[in-house]
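Progress note, sequence design subtask.
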């Protein structure tokens, strides 16, 4: 009688990468959300999701870059959840006109980070994915689960909200 062979857990591939990838993934998330607790939660979710993905029949090749991609999806999922919760709490009627508003002023990085953190999750997600991560509008739309047209409109509103908040903060800091 032949004993069944024990197959090693494919998620062990993550163990070798864990120590080097953990600070990269955590740093990526912290720099985008600005909240240590949330960054820790999303980092945990990222690695748990990676373990589950590694155990699938056609598992992806595990790398730090791939884990950062998983983290980006986890962060986008978080922002979508926040947006749904906010919509459930109140009716938002945004009557901002659709205008192209290039902003040629120099932005103060610290003030910009604070302002970005003060925006609603849908605006923060759109602006972060587009301008911090450098994704194109179709990619941002994919991450946010929106159409390209709806994402373009969201980006216009998000830029306008960012500018208003930035200028208000500038006035208070002066």
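Output:
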């Amino acid at each position: 009688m032949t004993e069944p062979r024990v197959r090693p857990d494919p998620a062990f591939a993550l163990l070798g990468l864990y120590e080097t990838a953990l600070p990269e993934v955590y740093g990526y998330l912290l720099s985008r959300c600005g909240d240590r607790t949330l960054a820790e939660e999303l980092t945990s979710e990222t690695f748990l999701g990676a373990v589950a993905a590694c155990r699938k029949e056609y598992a992806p090749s595990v790398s730090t870059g791939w884990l950062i991609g998983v983290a980006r999806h986890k962060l986008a999922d978080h922002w979508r959840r926040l947006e749904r919760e906010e919509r459930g709490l109140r009716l938002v009627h945004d009557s901002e006109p659709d205008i192209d508003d290039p902003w040629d002023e120099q932005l103060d990085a610290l003030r910009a980070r604070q302002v970005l953190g003060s925006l609603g999750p849908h605006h923060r997600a759109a602006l972060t994915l587009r301008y911090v991560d450098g994704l194109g509008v179709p990619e941002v739309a994919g991450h946010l689960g929106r159409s390209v047209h709806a994402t373009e409109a969201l980006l216009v509103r998000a830029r306008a909200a960012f500018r208003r908040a930035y200028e208000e903060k500038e006035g208070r800091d002066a």
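The chain is about 70% helix and 0% strand. Work on this subtask will continue into the next period as scheduled.
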